[in-house]
Write a structure and sequence with these properties.
The structure holds 3 protein chains of 3 kinds.
Chain A: H1 8-11, H2 16-26, H3 32-41, H4 44-47, H5 52-55, E1 65-67, E2 74-79, E3 82-90, H6 92-97, H7 99-115, E4 120-130, H8 136-156, E5 160-167, E6 176-186, E7 201-206, H9 241-256, E8 262-265, H10 270-282, E9 285-289, H11 302-307, E10 313-318, H12 323-332, E11 336-344, E12 348-353, E13 356-362, H13 363-367, H14 398-407, H15 415-418, E14 429-431, E15 439-442, E16 454-461, H16 464-468, H17 470-488, E17 491-500, H18 507-527, E18 531-537, E19 541-542, E20 545-546, E21 550-559, E22 576-580, H19 591-595, H20 609-624, E23 630-633, H21 638-650, E24 654-657, H22 666-673, E25 680-684, H23 686-693, E26 698-704, E27 708-712, E28 718-722, H24 723-738
Parallel strand pairs in A: 4-5, 9-12, 17-18, 24-27
Antiparallel strand pairs in A: 1-2, 2-3, 3-6, 4-6, 7-10, 7-11, 8-10, 9-11, 12-13, 14-15, 15-16, 16-21, 17-21, 19-20, 22-25, 22-26, 23-25, 24-26, 27-28
Chain B: E1 3-11, H1 18-29, E2 42-48, H2 54-62, E3 68-74
Antiparallel strand pairs in B: 1-2, 1-3
Chain C: E1 2-7, H1 14-21, E2 26-31, E3 42-45, H2 65-75, E4 80-83, H3 85-92, E5 99-101, E6 109-117, E7 133-140, E8 144-146, H4 149-157, E9 161-165, E10 178-182, E11 188-191, H5 209-221
Parallel strand pairs in C: 1-2, 1-3, 3-4, 4-11
Antiparallel strand pairs in C: 5-8, 6-7, 6-9, 9-10, 10-11
Classes of the chains: A alpha+beta, B alpha+beta, C alpha/beta.
Amino acid sequence: MSETATAPHRALGLTDAEYELIVDKLGREPNAVELSMFSLMWSEHCAYKHSKKLLGQLPTEGPYLLMGPGENAGAVDVGDGLAIAFKVESHNHPSAVEPFQGAATGVGGILRDVFAVGARPIAVLDSLRFGELDSARSRYLLEHAVGGIGHYGNSIGVPTIGGELYFEGPYEQNCLVNAMALGIAEADRLTRSAATGPGNALILFGALTGRDGIGGASVLASAELGEGDADKRPTVQIGDPFAEKKLMECSLELLDRELLVSLQDLGAAGLTSSSSEMASKGGLGLDIHVDRVPLREPGMEPFEIMVSESQERMLCVVEPARVDEVLAVCAKWETTATVIGEVTDSGRLRVLSGGDVVGDMPVEALVDDCPLYDLAPEKPSAPIYPTPARTLPPDTGARAILPALLGSWNVADRRPVFEQYDCLVQSRTVRRPDDADAAVLLLPAPADGGARPAIAVSIDGSGRRVACDPYRGTVEAVLECAANLACVGAEPLGLTNCLNFGNPEKPHIAWQLSESVRGMADACRALDVPVVGGNVSLYNEGPEGPIYPTPVVGMVGRLPDAARAGRLGFAVEGDAIAFAGPFAPALPGSELAKLRGEPLPDGLPEIDVASVRKAQEAVRDAVRRGELRSAHDVAEGGLAVALAECCLGGDHGARVDFRGAGSEGERLLETLFGEGAGGFVLSGPRPALAALAREIQLTFVGEVTGSDLVLTLDDEATLSWPLAELREARSRGLADAIG
Amino acid sequence: MSQRIRVLVRPKAGILDPQGQAVERALPALGFDGVANVHVGRLVELDVEDPSRVGEMCEKLLANPLIEDYEIVEA
Amino acid sequence: MRFGVLRFPGTCDEVDAQLACERVGEATILWHGDTDLQGVDAIVVPGGFSYGDYLRVGAIARFAPIMESVIRFAREGGPVLGICNGFQVLCEAGLLPGALLPNKTLRFVCRQVDLVVEHADTVFTNACAEGERLSIPAKHTTGCWYAPRELYEQVEANGQVLLRYAPGENFNGSLGDVAGVRNEAGNVFGLMPHPEHAVDPLTGSVDGLKLFQSIANHVGAHV
């Protein structure tokens, strides 16, 4: 033992003050097992030390809310006695180390959260952010993360139906992989995780327990491990979708047959967090016999067993009389199952090995007593992020800008990515990626034989624009998600979020986080959409600096008639085209500004949230009435890019009037490519659009026609692109980079 | 008394082997020239009490004789 | 008319196949560990990742107890449809000629493809017209159909290729653009694309329904 050895608690990430608090709660010094468990439960990831107070601002009530934050997943009522459970989670750090397995196990983890509440998983979406694609590392991360998501989702038979993908310099060293999952359940059969009934059995089922993810806790090993033992402590968790498929079917059958009192999945911090949270929610205690846990590696120590993050495992509480039945169902699904403990009324979590108590802690101390910290936010006085590198020559005009934007990595066709995902399994997919602004999935046909309803889901985040303005950028992200739902005809029911930020102990990051959460809370309240749950990922930064502050929002909505789900492509020659909504395009912070190498602006323009909401609802209702042929939210690249996407999506050209914006110069560029919230490109029969014009801001701008996109400018000038040229630019953007 | 046997399974000559091709393409990009004829297969290792039956195991399960060749090696 | 749809550990598209079958008849899920085919009139071996695709796609599923019964059923002339992983299982079981290799791009691809019906006077395509184009999605990593030269020439000469990828649609590299092939006797058919995902107007094309209808027609005519 070296003379300068760090105190174990510090090596495990606990401060001296936190350690003293633990000693106080236990009434003595913690032993190795207890210290490792506290270090995990009191880590940022498990305890939300720096974010919990902020998250209290978010609205968590709503008319459709069935299960809010605090359970494995949140859930909303979708009618006909059904619920949709959903949640988003990050797996950023593991993905930066091993992108295939990091992304795969991220999907595995979020799926378990969903079936742990008794919902059959029906869809996955992913939000990915990497550095620019001219870096070999970013191309490597992209290829393998997409491969991992596809491998896991496809193998387990859950369709990946949507997602988003962005490339920005600040994510080069700290990529973001956020995975969202949805499941369907009968509303009155959602399962909670509280352990109840002293004397009930605790059963661990699923994969064997190995040394996965033990990492930092290895300082506690009592046996000195030699050099060749590094491979005994893998930091990379390996996911096995086949094991999870069996685990999922097994869990759903156990719940269907009402054999379980409660169910919890094992994720970060393994047995430690799952067992303590189950006990805490039930206000009870648990005795865990680690010598009964089936192991993959011989000779694991008690602390290793409690801390292992081996994948594909679940914990359940079962009445003694039903234990045999539970074990039989697990055997049928070729899933190992073992009674490893029991529920007690002691209020303590006890770890036993061979009859000896090797750990004994009050549950409350582990779960509830972690100190929460106030942030010390301070707006930065100077820009924190480097100006993006210029990729467009300075005098590039509008004619060349459109194909350049369509081919840019943040805008280009994502087909090379989403074709690696099965979007069809389970026969629910009404709108596939690229068909519309949101994915749409069938709900079961209602008993009364009426129209078949559907749910819609979109995942949207923002990084660069939140860096420009954490409050307004976040409001924009929430509004964009709701706009995507509106374009398919869906009313938002609930939202899940993942907050990806740098080190919150730094005042400028604390400021980003505080402002972003404030923006999210205000936007959710303005839209009447509750937060059903979510995740926080902090400390995403390195020597080069922090990531852009990146809130990611996943929203679920419902539409009453699947046959009327909206599409984004222009479809009928002669249809009128209109721009709708309180859209006020601006170039600062836009994709064009980025390509031109302009610095990030300090602040974004104000948003008239009430008007945006009104526009969303009007568009949604028009889609529901079947009056619109297409609806598309205006996002990256502004109106011109949105028009191009509508043309390419439906394989129809358009003639659009942009008179009044000049025939060249900055004002024209701002009109064509400026960004902001609240803009829609709509098409359909003229009378239908005219009716909509009586409710919201709407301007007729042209018609669907031919096989070119033609913009009429002032002074008889026009800009024109054959669709083939735009299609080529858009489809080569990513394909060239990832092959 | 068990014996440790190793079975190497490889794609039959002439069969399309995209994995082998992908590896062959990737090596020069990493600075390894002069590499050709790369094929990617599978390794199965087993302790067997009766090594004479391994051939049958290969024919029945471990390899698909239509598209794969196998080689039995004593480990 | 009743279909039996197999379910192995790791099978994913069995419920989808069952839903498709139920549009033209009745359908029961058959568990891999059982041997009773419950008197069904036709068998569907569905898509997915049976046994995690371990060792070789379909290699372990072919030995399941239910497969012994399916092989007997096939030898007696019963109609058997293998979809994607099901096609792989039937090739491993020796009920269909050839084998499936990894896609030439080595990646999983999920894409709507056009297929051309080569022969319409069969158990599986009698509801189609010869030369008809069917729009059906394909989604797989290991779908490149291959047979050694002699076997391939025999398969073509016998007219065993029932579905081919339309020009430009063969993304996996299959020999002869073969998308679906039958056995010599004509009662067993396997294809990589997923007809069960092309039966509902709400989710896309309904061209896949014709294959299930064909089987129902055949069974109905041979009662």
